[in-house]
Amino acid sequence: MIRNMQFSGLIVSTARRTATLDELVSWLNWPVIAVATPHRLRDELPLHELQCLLFWLEDHREISPTMNLVAWLRERSPGLYRIAIGYRMNAGAEPVIRSAGMHVYLPAWEIGATLSEALWPLLEREGLATVAMERARAPTRFSGAPPDWGELRESEHPP
């Protein structure tokens, strides 16, 4: 089920954009900073009224640069809620990511399920977001979906 979020968040990745990161962006409709560095964040953060930073990790090589970025942010923006989503990462990543000062770590194997079952309820519970339920519909830019996926009537959606 898709939800419409009334919330100011920013997705941060120390890697280049990938199809799965683009899928996350299409579900959340939050701005994204790919290949993030302290310099880029320093320039970008004042442009938004943010409550939360969502760190996206897809590869173990991203852990160290992401944790360095989190350490930098803890000093300069301690009030921002920090969430990390580790996409298809093994269990060894979690303790490293949590110890770096992340408020929450969410392992993800399927983006939609992680958002609907973990992220949105977490943001609501923490008072960081108001989430309005809507009719289920596919993400607008889901990788692999036909270009007119969002235009199909409900009866035409594949099972």
SSE diagram, text form:
Elements: E1 3-6, E2 9-12, H1 19-28, E3 32-33, H2 38-44, E4 52-57, H3 63-76, E5 81-87, H4 93-99, E6 104-108, H5 111-125, E7 130-133
Parallel strand pairs: 2-3, 2-4, 4-5, 5-6
Antiparallel strand pairs: 1-7
Describe the structure.
With 159 residues, this protein is of the alpha/beta class. It has one domain (3-156): Rossmann fold. It is built from five helices and seven strands, in the order E-E-H-E-H-E-H-E-H-E-H-E. The chain has helices spanning 19-28, 38-44, 63-76, 93-99, 111-125; strands at residues 3-6, 9-12, 32-33, 52-57, 81-87, 104-108, 130-133. Strand 5 (81-87), helix 4 (93-99) and strand 6 form a beta-alpha-beta unit. It is globular, with a radius of gyration of 16 Å.
